[in-house]
């Protein structure tokens, strides 16, 4: 079994267009959630989100690329560029043939679907652009990274709703740990902030109209975000041999299925994923200092997640810190675990715990240290990142300081 | 069909029951309607009566729309139809 380390990180999300900007915003407890700005937003009842602003695809991609890249692919390529540049890797020869890409997305090119449905249904057109299919497909972003960086090994997209990125990164970790691939580019992205994307979510009646307040007694739902997080997972020996900068080590993961309800979370399913991730990493529960929570800000998730953490950790649940950065960047759905991994890296590498902002009122059903409103300095050796998806699909990653 | 009969028909369909099994004092829980069924029922009622019901699944009891039983739902619909704002 190989040890696996993270040697590159990249992102674009509502908090920042790169990792340093995002971590700075997390340290300062900034809120990236605000009024949504896109066509027909006035026909929505939910009008807030963690939208990426100040991003012009036109300057970054040429005309041919623009016709092929949905917004979720654009975000992915921007994050991948930062991550791979940081890693210092170039892929050729055997490294190229054996290294691959596994990314998560829940819905792929939603705005491409939206724009083209509008064109044929509302505008009555009978012809769409020839690249609609390769632009909207869920694996488009993955394939474009593969092409851009000459990654020819195992390459695919994972789609498990809100756990997509964690499932993808767990899979990438397993591939590097087993020796199957020396390097895997992994993470995820999402871009559902368009009329049809939000309209679909509105129907479920779990979205907040004013703010994402995870664990707070007065929370009233989730708020969507958008963006991408991409990482380079590398065989530790390979990274050390070339003198790479190591951000943290990935030491374990677990996946579980509630096998119960299509939307309501289960404490048992979540607890099995959390305890499984500790077992896989061969660590004791009391070594965990920080958990990046799934923490959606819905009534159901937050109380179920806290109960699962209390079950797994026992008395140590009161000693560890657990925060939800969704309060700042929104819920990136299939990309969320990837952006949230940045908060784990910040905890392990920089000793700074990102806060849960918007926290106003304690909830007895969420009676853990949720790092309310202000970041905290702390020396953390092991961190977990939770993701619990609709469909009852759970994936938890274990990371260690290096 | 009266508002009452329409509401009972919607709820009965959701609960997979005969309309005669749904009474004014039935609660949705009595009828075996879970949280997803509730959201679907609200949607059907909005479509039937062309109204917008202020309902957030995170805190159903906080909303102005009282869903404690069939009678309270009917009263809520009547209010919204009289004053849709």
Mind explaining what this structure looks like?
The complex is a heterodimer of chains A (402) and B (85). Chain A has helices spanning 19-27, 57-60, 63-68, 71-87, 93-98, 110-122, 132-136, 140-149, 164-177, 195-202, 236-241, 267-281, 299-313, 326-329, 336-350; strands at residues 4-13, 34-35, 48-49, 100-104, 155-158, 183-190, 227-235, 248-257, 288-292, 321-323, 352-353, 376-377, 382-389, 393-400. Chain A has 402 residues and is α/β, with parallel strands linked by helices. Chain A folds into two domains: 4-241, Peroxisomal Thiolase, Chain A, domain 1, CATH 3.40.47; 253-400, Thiolase/Chalcone synthase (Peroxisomal Thiolase, Chain A, domain 1). The longest helix of chain A is centred in the first third of the chain and has 17 residues, at 71-87. Chain B has a single domain (3-82), classed as Orthogonal Bundle (Non-ribosomal Peptide Synthetase Peptidyl Carrier Protein, Chain A). Chain B contains three helices and no strands. Chain B has helices spanning 3-15, 35-49, 70-82. The longest helix of chain B is centred in the middle third of the chain and has 15 residues, at 35-49. The interface between A and B is medium-sized, with 15 and 12 residues.
Strand percentage of chain A lies at 15-25%
CATH architecture of chain B: Orthogonal Bundle
Q: Proportion of β residues of chain B? A: under 5%
- List unreliable stretches of 5+ residues of chain A: none
How far apart the termini of chain A lie comes to 18 Å
Nearest-angstrom radius of gyration of chain B? 12 Å
Q: Whole-Å distance between the termini of chain B?
A: 24 Å
Number of domains as seen in the coordinates of chain A: 2
Q: Quick one: CATH superfamily of chain B? A: ACP-like
Biggest sheet character of chain B: none
CATH class placement of the largest domain in chain A? Alpha Beta
Helix content of chain B: 40-55%
Structural class of chain A: alpha/beta
> Helical region count of chain A?
15
Residue stretches of chain B low in confidence (pLDDT < 50, at least 5 long) are none
Radius of gyration of chain A equals 20 Å
- Name the shape of chain A in a single word: globular
CATH class membership of chain B: Mainly Alpha
